From TrEMBL:
It comes from Candidatus Gottesmanbacteria bacterium GW2011_GWA2_42_18. It comes from the Bacteria. This is UDP-N-acetylenolpyruvoylglucosamine reductase. Its EC number is 1.3.1.98. Keywords: Cell cycle, Cell division, Cell shape, Cell wall biogenesis/degradation, Cytoplasm, FAD, Flavoprotein, NADP, Oxidoreductase, Peptidoglycan synthesis.
Length: 329
C-alpha cells in the first residue's frame, strides 16, 4: 500500500500537495505553526477525494475557508489541512408574481443563487448588490467564506441579521452519508450555531435566496454598514474578529448589565482587561472582544488572554464565556 504522501501527490500532481506548510499566512490572525500536509482544492470532486483518502489513512483533517474565526496553535496541525477554493456562483432559479392592473406577464421578485462554499462572503455580498439583490447588504466587509458562514451562522448583531436567513438549501458531504442535499431546517440555525457543528458535515454549496431591490439604496445601506464596522472595530492589526460569543439575554438580566447588553466585550472591559497585553497580543483598546497584534505574537499569547478573560469574568459574574473563534489543537 502506498503511503499517504504518495497517494495524495498522485491524485494532485504538480506540487499541489505541500508538506510542513506554515498555516499563519492562511489565517486572519497570522498565527499558527505548520500543517503536516496542506492542499488547496478547487472543486467538490477534489474535496471529496482528499477527504476520503485522509479517512482511509486515518489522517486528522481540517477544512479551512477564509481563515477567520480560527486559531491554530504554535505547533501547527498534525494532519491534512484542505484549503477550500471552490469559487462558483450560479443563477439556478427565479420566482415572481403575476402583474396586476391590466398588465400582463410576471414580475421577478426572488432570485436563487447556488454558491460554492469556498466563495468569500464579501465577494457574494458585492455580487448580489451589483445585481440589485437584497439579503446580504448588512454583511459588506464581512470576512470568511460561505461554508464558514453556514457553519457558524454568520451575523450582523447590530442589525440582528443572520446568514442562515437566506439559506434555503445546501449540498453537504461526509464519509458516512456521502452527498446529502438538505433544506434550511436541517441546520437548526441559532446564534453562532448550526447543526454542522454536531454532524461534522462539510458544505459543498449553498442555495441562497435574494429579493429584488433598488441597487442604489442597497449599496447605500451596505456602505453605511461598512462605515459602522470601521468605526467600532479595530483596524491596522491582525485579528480573528470577536473572540467570545455574546451572552444570553437571561444572563444579561441576571447580571443587570447596562441596558441589559449581551456584549461579551462589556464583560471583558468591566473586569479591567481592555488593552491588556500578554506577550505580543492584546485585548483591543477599541473593542475589548477583539484580540489583536502587529506581528510579534504567538498563538500561546492569545490562548493565555482567552484563559485570563474566562477566569476573571467567572470570578466576578459566575459566568463562563464561550469562544466564538474555533481553537484547533
Amino acid at each position: 500500500m502506498k503511503d499517504f504522501t504518495t497517494v495524495l501527490s498522485d491524485f494532485f500532481p504538480g506540487g499541489r500537495l505541500l508538506l510542513k506548510e506554515p498555516l499563519a499566512k492562511y489565517t486572519s490572525l497570522r498565527l499558527g505553526g505548520p500543517a503536516d500536509y496542506f492542499l488547496k482544492v478547487r472543486g467538490g470532486d477534489e474535496l471529496q477525494k482528499a477527504v476520503s483518502q485522509a479517512h482511509l489513512y486515518k489522517i486528522p483533517l481540517f477544512i479551512l475557508g477564509g481563515g477567520t474565526n480560527v486559531l491554530f496553535n504554535d505547533e501547527g496541525f498534525p494532519g491534512l489541512v484542505i484549503k477550500n477554493e471552490m469559487s462558483d456562483i450560479k443563477l439556478i432559479g427565479l420566482k415572481g408574481e403575476s402583474l396586476k392592473d391590466g398588465k400582463t406577464g410576471t414580475a421577478i421578485n426572488t432570485v436563487y443563487l447556488e454558491v460554492d462554499s469556498g466563495v468569500g462572503v464579501n465577494r457574494l455580498v458585492r455580487y448580489s448588490l451589483d445585481q440589485g439583490l437584497s439579503g446580504l447588504e448588512y454583511f459588506l466587509g464581512q470576512p470568511g467564506t460561505v461554508g464558514g458562514a453556514v457553519w457558524i451562522n454568520a451575523h450582523n448583531m447590530d442589525k440582528k441579521r443572520f446568514f442562515g436567513e437566506i439559506v434555503v438549501a445546501a449540498t453537504l458531504f461526509n464519509i458516512e452519508k456521502g452527498i446529502n442535499k438538505v433544506a434550511q431546517d436541517y441546520f437548526r440555525f441559532g446564534y453562532d450555531k448550526s447543526n454542522l457543528q454536531k454532524t461534522g458535515e462539510i458544505v459543498l454549496s449553498a442555495v441562497c435566496s435574494f429579493r429584488r431591490g433598488n441597487k442604489e439604496k442597497l449599496w447605500k445601506i451596505a456602505r453605511e454598514t461598512l462605515e459602522y464596522r470601521s468605526r467600532t472595530q479595530p483596524s491596522g492589526y491582525f485579528s480573528a474578529g470577536c473572540i467570545f460569543r455574546n451572552i444570553k439575554k437571561s444572563e444579561a438580566m441576571r447580571l443587570a448589565t447596562p441596558q441589559f447588553t449581551l456584549s461579551a466585550g462589556f464583560l471583558i472591559e468591566s473586569v479591567g482587561l481592555k488593552g491588556k497585553t500578554i506577550g505580543g497580543a492584546s485585548f483591543s483598546p477599541t473593542h475589548a472582544n477583539f484580540i489583536v497584534h502587529k506581528g510579534q505574537a504567538k498563538s500561546l499569547d492569545v490562548l493565555k488572554l482567552i484563559d485570563l478573560a474566562r477566569e476573571k469574568v467567572f470570578a466576578k459574574y459566575h459566568l463562563r464565556l464561550e469562544t466564538e473563534i474555533r481553537i484547533v489543537n
